[in-house]
Amino acid sequence: MTSKTAKGVRMALVGAGAMVVAATLAIGGTASAHHSFAMYDSDNQIKLAGTVSKFQWTNPHIYIELETNPGETATKVKHYTIECASPGILTRIGWKFNMIKQGDKVQVVIAPLKNGDPGALLKAVKLPDGRVFGNGGPAGRAAIEF
Amino acid sequence: MIGPSRSRALRAVLLAGALAIVSGAAALAGQPAAPGAPGGPVAGEVRGLNGGASPGTRLVAAPPPPPPEVGTSLSPPTSKRVTDRSSFSGTWDRYQRGNPAPPTPPPAAGPPPVKPEIKAKIDAAQKALADAAARYEPIATDAVDCLPEGFPGMMNAIFPIEFLVTPGQVTIIEEAFNQVRRIYIDEPQGKIGDVEPVWFGHSVAKWEGDTLVIDTIGVKEQAKFRNIPHSDNMRITERMKLLSPDFLQDEMTIVDPEVFTEPWKLTFTYRRNPGYKIQEYICEAPRIYRDENGTTRLRTN
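YS: structure for the whole thing
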């Protein structure tokens, strides 16, 4: 378990390095292989803790449906649809299709939808075992630490 | 793998007859059915006829297709996945910078030499994209509708890219959107205006020594690279070769008199990633959609 965790941390660090490179290449949010992330407010990121109600591992994007824990969040919204990058991008920085499961308690740093709908772009996720993963280059870096 | 392969080869043998068995035996022993065999890719001139203005009369006048060449060996193909570093075959990442560097670094891409009136349109579209993004309302692109980039956009290889060299054909697969491009070797090209516009165009090629020279026409208008429009008259020539065992270069020249003042030259360089296996990419149940105003939205629960 220790080596697995270490591997996860190393992967996350590699991912963070890749994000720096990719962020400098991303001009106008067009570097995404699928769509612009401009509808998300990356300047006002928030941290949430909650329980995963669904983990959708699909192209072109992966989604985490999160029920936020009352009293632990910076918002009154109870349910968030959180967009992640694609299986290809995230597999290359260490994610796996079964690393998040329904019922998992996770923490996330997100950029919420600017229009106020209960959706967001993931910046980073902290799993129950403590591993932290970024969301790939095009999604940009987390501005808040766990 | 062995069962279907044998079955296909056997079917091809039965259909093709004894003459083809003799002629194809030496060259294709041990290989699966060749391009042009029953069930395989259709030849360029046949595609052209099907897209012609009066297909009925031309089809009547067309000579019967030559008998396909087939192999006779029923031995199974080599099953182990190996990397032949003298071949284009394998998986690659587009090289931009960093070490190890290729023997010839890719030159910095200059601006496309578009005509002034085209540039004005592109600039206006770019400004609209930027303005919408600044309002947090990004304009939906084809990708939001699960449409691929097409050619030449797929050669930009945002995701890893795989080349497969088989007898008579080079196949290129880009991971994003499962984009597949088929290039037929030593086949005649169709005529501009007579080939069906498709996302990846119609590509034929010849080997000039170790360089594969590819000619492509018939790219669908909707398949835009870097938001640059093109006409039916666009013709793209590529010179593809290994710079070293682990670097592949694709020198591309795009000619379109209706869009460019001179040929637009681009170079893509790829670095071999021998351990990588291309992942499946099905654009499945997207939550991202295009609203009635053409804005990209996220469907939340």
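YS: worth flagging: The two ends of chain B are 43 Å apart (CA to CA).
IM: good catch. Also DSSP finds five helices and eleven strands in chain B.
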